[in-house]
Each structure stands twice: as C-alpha cells, then as structure tokens.
Amino acid sequence: TWTPYAFVETTVAELKEQIGNDKVILGLSGGVDSTVAAVLLHKAIGKHLHCIFVNNGLLRKNEFEDVLEQYKHMGLNVKGVDASARFLDALAGEEDPEKKRKIIGGVFIDVFDDEAHKVEDAKWLAQGTIYPDRIESVSASGGPSAVIKSHHNVGGLPDYMKLKIVEPLKMLFKDEVRRVGATLGIADERLGRHPFPGPGLAIRILGDITREKVAILQEVDAIFINGLREWGLYDDVWQAGAMLLPVHSVGVMGDERTYEKCVALRAVESTDGMTADWVNLPYEFLQKMSNDIINKVPGVNRVVYDISSKPPATIEWE
Ligand code: XMP
C-alpha cells in the first residue's frame, strides 16, 4: 500500500540517483504542488535546486511578498521576480479568454527563460505537475469537442531551453500531495491552501484586464478569503474566489444613484477539480461578505453567489 513516508524515501533516493550533482530549476507558484515538489527536491539535492517565483501581477493581495518570505524561511534557494508590468502590458485590451491564457503562458515562458539563463549550467527543469493536470490536458487536446481550456503550465516548455524535465509528483492526486507535504514538515496552513490557477485573477476578470480591475478584485477576494478563515469555513471549501463581471448595474448609495461593477463569489467542493459542487455557505456569512464588499470596495455595488456545479459549468469563469 501507498504511504507518504515510503513515497518520500523512494522518491528522494530516485531523485538523487537521477540528478546527481546537476543543477535544477523550479518555478514556484505559492501553491501546494510546486511547494511540495520544491521541498522534496531540496531534500534530495539541497542548494542545487534553484527556485524562481514570478509575480505576474495577477496574484492575490500581498501574496507575492508573503509567500516569498515563507519560502525563504523554509530554507529554499528562491529568487522572487516581479514581472507584473510585463504581464499587464501584454494583456492590455485583450478580452478573449483563451488569448489571455496564451499571452500569460507566453510571457511566463519568456520571464522564466530569462531567469533560467541566469542559473549557469542548469540541466533540469522541475515541475509540480500532478496526475489530474495531465489527464485534463490530454483530454483537452484529444477529441472534436476538444479544447476546454488550455492549461498553459503543462508541456509549455520552449525547445530552446533544452532542459530535461523532472516531475516528482506526476503520479499523485491532490490529497496524496498534501500527505507527502505533511510528511516533509510543511505547515498545515500552506498545505491546506485552496488551489489557485496559474493565470491567476486574469481568468476571474471577464473581459479585458486593467490594473484598476486587478486591484478591485484583489480587495474583494481578500475580504472573501479572510472571511472564510474567520468564520471557520475555509477548510470546508476546496476552492473559493471572486469573479469580476463585465457588467455594470444600477444601485443606490445614500441619495445617489450608482452605476457600478458586479462581483460573483464562488466556493466549491471537489476532490480533484475535475468535478465540483457549489458549497452551501451560511446565509449569514454571505450577507456579511456582501455588506463588507459593497461597503469597503469602491466601484462595486452588487454581489452575487454562483450556484453552478461542474459540469456543466467550470470552476473558473474563463
Ligand atoms: P476549471 O475552471 O477548468 O478549473 O473547472 C479546474 C481547476 O483548475 C484550475 N485551473 C488552472 N490551473 N492553470 C492552472 O494552473 C490554468 O490555466 C488553470 N485553469 C483552471 C482551477 O483554478 C481549478 O482549480
């Protein structure tokens, strides 16, 4: 039978054997998968692991600074690269969901490649790919009803990088990754984190992306996620976030008519993201979130809750 302890023992031994004294580059995202992959590799090869953490300007509020600090505390050899402007400039004016993903994927590769070249003599690229990532990408490129969404972080390696790929988690499901992480001593708070997509808030801002919209959505998202934590609901939810809709609607503030933005809150239960059900959050909680968001976030005058399951909806709106 599979145990996380045995997995760590075997995998660390295999990684040592496979990699020897080579240098490895790994892109950290702040998520569970890349973090566990990094700690596993660090256990096997120590300072030969060079981690790169890119800020694409589409992360949660304060995420880049907070997570970079945590990685440093974990002893990882990590470089933080703030490339926000490159991503946001490249995205300017683009409304099409798939094009937005492709732009982000493309800029990420460029930024990552620039950084990778700074690590002399690197031989390997490590990725935190897990089993469901591969399934969804394969099926998405397969049949006629094919491309559901392009998961840019699978198979997106440009040829010219010429690095060998190592994916120590590629046979694991999410719950197994978390158990491996716990065995490696990674804090529960980090392991219990909800998944967050590579393209970040870009696929939660419907329509074109501006710095102002990102800032609004970061505030809304922070209120919602902190609210879930404060109300003890965070761990009952597999993933949660907010969507900024390309809709303005009429409201009233004091005696004034307003015509402002609408956000949708989304919270789902799932095991691997392939199917999902919306979570029956308490009305009192939703009421509090709605009041806080509308009172505290200028530019938003309406909050709705998404009650769609996957399928036929998806978790992200784009
Ligand atoms: P959907 O929206 O397809 O999402 O139901 C399923 C899970 O995948 C995440 N997701 C992504 N993760 N790059 C990622 O790293 C992506 O392009 C991407 N698209 C969706 C989503 O957040 C959910 O957990």
TrEMBL record:
GO terms for cellular component: cytosol. The lineage of its organism: Bacteria, Pseudomonadati, Bacteroidota, Flavobacteriia, Flavobacteriales. It catalyses: XMP + L-glutamine + ATP + H2O = GMP + L-glutamate + AMP + diphosphate + 2 H(+). Signal peptide: none annotated. Catalyzes the synthesis of GMP from XMP. Pathway: Purine metabolism; GMP biosynthesis; GMP from XMP (L-Gln route): step 1/1. The keyword Membrane does not apply. Residues 2-193 form the GMPS ATP-PPase domain. Its EC number is 6.3.5.2. The keyword Ligase applies. Keywords: ATP-binding, Glutamine amidotransferase, GMP biosynthesis, Ligase, Nucleotide-binding, Purine biosynthesis. ATP binds at residues 29-35. Homodimer. GO terms for molecular function: ATP binding; GMP synthase activity. This is GMP synthase [glutamine-hydrolyzing].
